[in-house]
Amino acid sequence: MTKPPLFNRVALIGIGLIGASLSHAMRRAGLVNEIAISTRSQETLDRAEELNLGNFYSTDAGEAVKDADCVILCVPVGASEAVTKKIAPHLKAGAIITDVGSVKCSVIDQIKPHLPEAVHFVPGHPIAGTEYSGPDAGFATLFENRWSILTPLEDTDQEATQAIKALWKGCGSNVSIMAPKHHDLVLAITSHLPHLIAYNIVGTAADLEDDTKSEVIKFSASGFRDFTRIAASDPAMWRDVFLHNREAVLEMLNRFTTDLAELTRYVDEGDGQALFDLFTRTRSIRKGIIDAGQEIDAPDFGRLS
Ligand code: NAP
């Protein structure tokens, strides 16, 4: 016997990579009867309709959430407060509101004060993405075998948390629950700092003299190419991440610069043993990620594409 859908109507506010992927994944798994879609521009909304991502479309977010049992905010983290203010008066009593933002403490501070009491708030973040954005970038398997983190608050209704957990599991994701502050610290090192470093190294290359720059592109397969993929990520989304996870990013950046200074010393002093020891340690981290099923064990630097 097939399971009944988790929700009758889900409203997706924002329909880029994550919103569109959720639409595909929820429909594929039969988690929802109807999807209402809202985005701020008519252009993106029209594209979402052409791609048949929902059953109802509006640029008016308040209109889209009216009869929704579950509302998922899929906008850049800096837009969370403005969007919540727009939808709050139209939320149905008993509705669950969740989000997918890459930062949790700031998003909670932006959303929570504006919500009516009768609405349940379950902050969330799928640890899955690509460097592409917009509704065309979405695909049904994005969340498969990835992790989604939920950071419920002390007063969050447990049934609401379980419902959002079931939603992510239905989309193929594993679910982990943690405190918002801990989330922001962990993501600062696993995601935010690597993006900052990639933006920095690609920015440095972009500032090189023209003749050297052309060599950088020609010989990019030697490692640089992997940074350019990360540094091609959406500028608005990432600007907001650094504006809204400032403290945790600065803490990790401090540790990083201390370690980089030490590494600089090893190179300067020709300390081969120290370099070898560090590189041996880092190699085992990669093995751990492969063992955890979060990466495949295939050569990548030599890939043909
Ligand atoms: P995206 O593809 O760029 O889509 C963004 C959506 O938000 C679009 O519908 C866009 O509307 C709307 N939007 C942009 N700025 C807005 C604003 N100021 N006010 C209201 N709406 C606005 O972004 P995404 O990659 O799906 O990311 C959405 C959220 O998911 C972000 O909070 C991000 O932190 C989180 N996230 C992203 C990834 C990733 O790898 N990309 C992974 C995990 C979580 P218009 O197109 O109509 O302007």
Write a concise keyword list for the protein shown above.
single chain, alpha/beta, 6-phosphogluconate dehydrogenase C-terminal fold, 2 domains, 50% helix, binds NADP nicotinamide-adenine-dinucleotide phosphate
Report on this structure.
The protein is an alpha/beta fold. The protein has two domains: 172 residues, 3-Layer(aba) Sandwich (Rossmann fold); 89 residues, 6-phosphogluconate dehydrogenase C-terminal fold (Orthogonal Bundle), CATH 1.10.3660.10. It is 50% helix and 13% strand. The chain is built from twelve helices and nine strands. Strands 3-2-1-4-5-6 form a six-stranded parallel β-sheet. It has a three-stranded mixed β-sheet with strand order 7-8-9, with helices on one face. Strand 4, helix 4 and strand 5 form a beta-alpha-beta unit. Helix 7 crosses helix 11. Bound molecules: NADP nicotinamide-adenine-dinucleotide phosphate (NAP).
What's a quick, concise take on this entry?
The chain has 305 residues and is α/β, with parallel strands linked by helices. The protein has 12 helices and 9 strands.
Indicate the overall shape: elongated
What structural class do you assign from the helix and strand content? alpha/beta
How many domains is the backbone divided into?
2
Helical percentage:
40-55%
Q: Which residues form runs of ≥5 with pLDDT under 50?
A: none
Give the CATH architecture of the largest domain. Answer: 3-Layer(aba) Sandwich
| Gap from first CA to last CA | 44 Å
What is the spatial order of strands in the main beta sheet? 3-2-1-4-5-6
**Strand composition percent:** 5-15%
Number of helices: 12
Q: Overall mean pLDDT score?
A: 94
What is the CATH class name of the largest domain? Alpha Beta
Bound molecules: NADP nicotinamide-adenine-dinucleotide phosphate
Measured on Cα atoms, how large is the radius of gyration? 21 Å
Q: How do the helices and strands follow one another from N- to C-terminus? A: EHEHEHEHEHEEEHEHHHHHH
Number of strands: 9
Largest sheet, strands/sense/barrel = 6 strands, parallel
Might you state the CATH topology name of the largest domain? Rossmann fold
Please name the fourth-level CATH homologous superfamily of the largest domain. NAD(P)-binding Rossmann-like Domain
